[in-house]
Design a protein that fits this description.
By secondary structure, the chain is α/β, with parallel strands linked by helices. It has one domain: 3-Layer(aba) Sandwich (Rossmann fold), CATH 3.40.50. 20% of the residues lie in helices and 15% in strands. It has six helices and five strands; from the N terminus they run αααββαααβββ. The strands form two sheets. Strands 1-5-2 form a three-stranded parallel β-sheet, covered by helices on one side. A two-stranded antiparallel ribbon has the order 3-4. A hairpin with a 2-residue loop joins strand 3 and strand 4.
Length: 185
């Protein structure tokens, strides 16, 4: 009763103008794409360094916490995994940083303290893995960015003055920016 039909089409500017001028056409909108940045999330949630509850400071921004993530892997070159100002790896850490395709143990540091991949169950079930067809890496390296994004949200380092083409400028950081990350793929 209160809806209307719509569709998406690839049109030239003149075609879009002609379509917009037709009777019964409510609106023609050009498509646009914006990549979102999460530079204001933590302030919005009340988890800034100056929030009244002081949770972030009371927990020392997650220092000595190790966040284990099971996801698509990690892109270790991302600046959110820089270890500037971080002390030694916590003594309770007993994991390792596993080498593999396009990933070696030197990719780990005092921030990204562990990375491991598991493929034996896949090979046992399917017999082989063709990395060329799948685009994935036989290593902890992230092939599509999801694992890297999740790790950034959870414990990415503080990166000031970040924006996407001037939009949503601010500071990017994880919820526990001084925590350590261990990625499992």
């Amino acid at each position: 009763r209160h809806g209307f039909s719509g569709f998406a089409a690839k049109l030239t500017n003149s075609q879009a103008k002609k379509l917009a001028d037709l009777p019964g056409v409510v609106h023609v909108t050009p498509d646009s794409f914006y990549e979102l940045a999460t530079t204001r999330t933590w302030d919005y949630l009340g988890l800034s360094a100056t929030s009244p509850k002081n949770l972030l400071n009371d927990t020392n921004m997650g220092e000595e916490v190790i966040i284990g993530i099971v996801d698509t892997g990690v892109w270790p070159e991302s600046q959110v995994f820089n270890d500037n100002g971080m002390g030694p790896v916590p003594s309770q850490w007993k994991g390792d940083c596993e080498s593999g395709e396009m990933f070696n143990s030197s990719h780990c540091n005092k921030k990204l303290i562990g990375a491991k991949y598991f493929i034996s169950a896949f090979l046992a079930k399917y017999g082989s893995f063709n990395a060329t067809e799948s685009l994935d890496f036989i290593s902890p390296r992230d092939y599509d960015g999801h694992g890297t994004h999740v790790a950034t949200i959870a414990g990415g380092s503080v990166l000031p003055n970040i924006s996407y083409k001037g939009l949503a400028g601010g500071t990017v950081r994880g919820g526990a920016p001084r925590a350590r990350i261990a990625m499992y793929k």
